[in-house]
Structure formats: C-alpha cells, structure tokens
C-alpha cells in the first residue's frame, strides 16, 4: 500500500503545520546547456506561503511567496546566486517577484502578476510568469534570443477536505476545474461542473481506471481509495484505536504518454513522512528507503505501464515534451480531514 513506500522518519518534527494546499509542477527545460527536470513546489499553510525550486544534483532553494497573515512586512523581489560544478564551473542565478502576485482561491500557486526566472552565466534560460519586462529592468539581463516555453510534464497536488476535493489543471492549453466527491461508497468526478464519471460500490472497486473527456480531449483516469475504504472499515469495527482517519486517496488524470515523477522534496516530502509516522501500527513496520516515486500505489504502476515511457528518464525528448505530443499527468492526493 502507499504508506509502506516511505521510511519511518527518525527525529522528524511531527508538529510541522499541515498545508492547506500543496502543488508540485515538473518542467523540462535547459539549464547551462543540459536537459533538466525542474521541480517547483508551492506550499501554503496557515502561517506561511513558500516556493521550493529544485533541480536534482544542482540546487534547492526555498523562498517566501507571501508573508503570513500575522506579518506587518511585505515581500520584495529577490534573487540568489548559486555556483555549480557539474562538468564545468557555472554560475546560476534565480530571480523571483511575488509582490503583486494573484492566486486562485485556496491555491498555493501564483496565477498572475509574478515571475520566476533562472539564468546561467548571465543568460536567461527559464522564465515563468507574466512580468518579463520587469525582470529585465531589475536584473539587467540582456535578451539575446527567444526563451522557449518550458514543457510542463506533470503536476502533483495535495488537496484537503471532508467529502469534496477540488483541483485545477491545464490540459492541452485548456484550463479545467476538477471536483472529486466521495461519500456513501460512491465516487463522483466532475469536470467544469459536469459529472464525467460515477463509480459505485467502492468497497469492491477501490482501485480502477476509466476513460473520461475534458473539453473533447480523451483522458485516462485512475483511482485508488483503498486507504479510505480501509480506514472506514477500521472505524466501523472500532479497531482504529488511534483515531487515524486522515487517509488519502490517489487520483491520476493522464493524457498521451503521461508525465515524469522526480522524488518529492521540501514540504511535500515532510507531509508524506508525517502521514506515515501517524499511521497505526507504524512501530511494528520495518524501515524502508524513501522511494523516488511519489508512491507505490497500483494505479501509479498502471499509469506508468499504460504509457510508452512513464517515468523513465531514458525516453526521448519528443515523448516527454508537453508541446510535441501533449503528454501530461495530473496526480491528486486527496487527504481526508477529521
């Protein structure tokens, strides 16, 4: 099951605040003439709002997106220089500005009026946002060429609720709102307010996959609600003495060849470890190594096998490119609140 894919966190603080929303976007881009998977993790809690920018074997940086509601100070544009020595000495500089950033309701991810940029040896190589002119004015970077849009390969989102869970994603250039509702042993999936799928008798069909449509685009949908079904059975039989009702369901929406899933970092990694540490019977479980994949759920294996390459890093750039064939995956972790 999903929890056993993660090692028991020794000494990890269990009192860290639970996110209100947590979103990870995985982009394929070029940094210092090398193909790179760039991971951006947006995290919002009651007391903080942050962004972790991560490139494997290169750098990891966490910046404040917006001060807490208890702060009297406003964020300012910032930058950070990082020196890496992979094959040659390279100077990477990361720029950000969330001073006027606007957000969709309850979302940790900035929607407009912001920028995130990365330069290598004073050459702009990655840009996200809509304030490129302000970046150039502040940084002094010279635009000697057009910056190609980074390919968004995958999106992971952790949403929290009681019976209803909302996620938003862009499929082939079209934005959609997805609502997942689960109650009374029935799963409803709604896209832009319209019911796309109903799954009954979840006690027997706690895992599965079906095809649905979003704006005329065929999407492969996978679900795994074993944790929910198992927790409900434990509570009904009064066997869950620790009151562990915070199980999560796993849902995947996949187009084309699917996405790429680098390991979890920062607040996302802490959330999964905290979930494991609170699971009943954890002390009796053997310690295992944290998997680089987001979980070992059967539906993730099915999603991987249904594509030509899945998460394989050996895939050609054409099969991994969002722009070339529309390969994209949205992975939703839906966490039940007490």
From TrEMBL:
Organism: Rubroshorea leprosula
Pfam families: DUF868 (PF05910)
Organism domain of life: Eukaryota
Protein name per UniProt: Uncharacterized protein
UniProt xrefs under InterPro entries: DUF868_pln
């Amino acid at each position: 099951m999903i929890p056993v894919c993660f090692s028991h966190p020794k000494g990890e603080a269990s009192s860290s605040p639970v996110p209100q929303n947590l979103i990870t976007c995985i982009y394929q881009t070029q940094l210092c003439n090398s193909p790179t998977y760039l991971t951006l993790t947006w995290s919002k809690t009651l007391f903080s709002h942050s962004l972790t920018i991560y490139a494997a074997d290169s750098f990891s940086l966490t910046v404040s997106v917006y001060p807490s509601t208890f702060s009297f100070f406003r964020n300012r544009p910032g930058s950070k220089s990082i020196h890496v020595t992979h094959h040659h000495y390279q100077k990477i500089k990361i720029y950000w500005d969330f001073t006027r950033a606007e957000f969709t309701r309850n979302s940790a991810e900035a929607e407009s009026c912001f920028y995130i940029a990365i330069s290598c040896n004073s050459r702009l190589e990655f840009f996200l946002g809509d304030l490129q002119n302000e970046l150039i004015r502040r940084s002094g970077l010279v635009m000697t060429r057009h910056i190609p849009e980074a390919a968004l390969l995958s999106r992971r989102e952790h949403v929290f609720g009681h019976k209803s869970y909302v996620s938003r994603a862009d499929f082939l250039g079209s934005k959609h709102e997805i609502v997942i509702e689960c109650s009374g042993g029935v799963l409803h999936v709604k896209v832009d307010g319209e019911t796309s799928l109903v799954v009954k008798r979840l006690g027997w069909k706690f895992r599965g996959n079906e095809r649905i449509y979003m704006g005329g685009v065929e999407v492969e949908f996978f679900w795994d609600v074993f944790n929910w079904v198992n927790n409900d059975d434990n509570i009904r039989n009064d066997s869950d003495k620790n009151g562990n009702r915070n199980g999560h369901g796993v849902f995947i929406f996949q187009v084309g060849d699917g996405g790429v899933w680098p390991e979890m970092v920062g607040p996302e990694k802490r959330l999964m470890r905290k979930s494991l540490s609170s699971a009943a019977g954890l002390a009796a479980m053997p310690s295992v190594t944290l998997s680089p994949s987001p979980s070992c759920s059967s539906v993730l294996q099915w999603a991987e096998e249904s594509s030509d390459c899945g998460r394989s890093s050996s895939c050609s750039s054409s099969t991994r490119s969002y722009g070339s064939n529309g390969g994209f995956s949205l992975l939703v972790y839906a966490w039940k609140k007490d």
